[in-house]
């Protein structure tokens, strides 16, 4: 089984930049996207020419903001959205598809914002997300993918020292939040397989960051410990353009 995840930074714009061709070229069993920036009907319209996939999405109440979607060749057992916490369920950030052997959670974690204005909210969100994932994992193993909006370790961003505790995505609060999520029994698949490899999945649109590879690894596949033995590979496809992120992948035996 192959699963791909891609923060498309606007699904309608991304279709114009070759998203449908990207999906076809990967030929993944499941393709997850984040930051659709579109309502449900707009996602369906944008993906009208996508054949061979069932389409599921969760959109924010605020138009043109956030949003996630799953495109799955196999129809899931069930699909649910959000955490069930009113404070966190207005921004279309979570969609969960249940399959025979696991739950797949596609997430777009809140950014702490310019000047870290949303850092306190992010902290409460991470805690609630941990509880939500633990509840699912009590039922069957989980795979968590998406833009987690945090570089976990110094190896995961180009300029770690100048960004630490100053820039959204690399504060100790956010790092601790991911540590706590992993503590329920999850593995970061890419870092587990490639402990010393420097590879990024996001580049700021400023300062020619992608050209100079001044990037961040903030897009992940996390899996329950019991699934790690089935992980054949975890990939970062920085040869693929069309967004300020690139796709990441997971292959399971």
Written overview of the protein:
By secondary structure, the chain is an alpha+beta fold. The chain has a single domain (about 1-250), classed as Endonuclease/exonuclease/phosphatase (Deoxyribonuclease I, Chain A, 4-Layer Sandwich). Helices cover about 25% and strands about 25% of the residues. The strands form three sheets. A six-stranded mixed sheet has the order 3-4-2-1-14-13. Strand 6 (about 95-100) and strand 7 form a beta hairpin. Helix 4 runs parallel beside helix 6 (about 170-180).
Assembly category:
single chain
What is the assigned CATH homologous superfamily? Endonuclease/exonuclease/phosphatase
Shape: globular
How far is it from the N-terminal to the C-terminal residue, by CA? Answer: 7 Å
Output the radius of gyration: 17 Å
* Class by alpha and beta content: alpha+beta
SS elements, strand count: 14
Low-confidence stretches: none
Please report the number of helical segments: 7
Strand order in the sheet with the most strands: 3-4-2-1-14-13
């Amino acid at each position: 089984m192959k699963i791909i995840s891609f923060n498309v930074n606007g699904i309608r714009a991304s279709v114009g930049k070759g998203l449908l061709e990207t999906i076809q070229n990967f030929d993944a069993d499941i393709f997850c996207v984040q930051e659709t920036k579109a309502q449900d009907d707009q996602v369906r319209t944008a993906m009208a020419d996508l054949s061979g996939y069932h389409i599921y999405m969760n959109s924010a109440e605020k138009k043109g903001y956030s949003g996630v979607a799953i495109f799955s060749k196999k129809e899931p057992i069930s699909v649910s959205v959000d955490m069930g916490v009113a404070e966190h369920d207005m921004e279309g950030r979570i969609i969960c598809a249940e399959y025979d052997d696991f739950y797949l959670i596609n997430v777009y974690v809140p950014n702490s914002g310019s000047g870290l204005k949303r850092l306190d909210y992010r902290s409460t969100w991470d805690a609630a997300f941990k509880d939500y994932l633990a509840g699912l994992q009590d039922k069957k193993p989980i795979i968590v993918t998406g833009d987690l909006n945090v570089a976990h370790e110094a190896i995961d961003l180009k300029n770690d020292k100048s960004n630490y505790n100053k820039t959204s995505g690399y504060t100790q609060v956010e790092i601790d939040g991911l540590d706590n999520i992993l503590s329920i029994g999850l593995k970061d698949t890419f870092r587990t397989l490639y402990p010393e490899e420097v590879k990024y999945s996001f580049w700021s649109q400023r300062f020619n960051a992608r050209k100079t590879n001044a990037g961040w690894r903030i897009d992940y596949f996390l899996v329950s410990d019991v699934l790690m033995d089935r992980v054949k590979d975890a990939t970062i496809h920085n040869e693929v353009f069309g967004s300020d992120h690139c796709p990441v992948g997971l292959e399971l035996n």
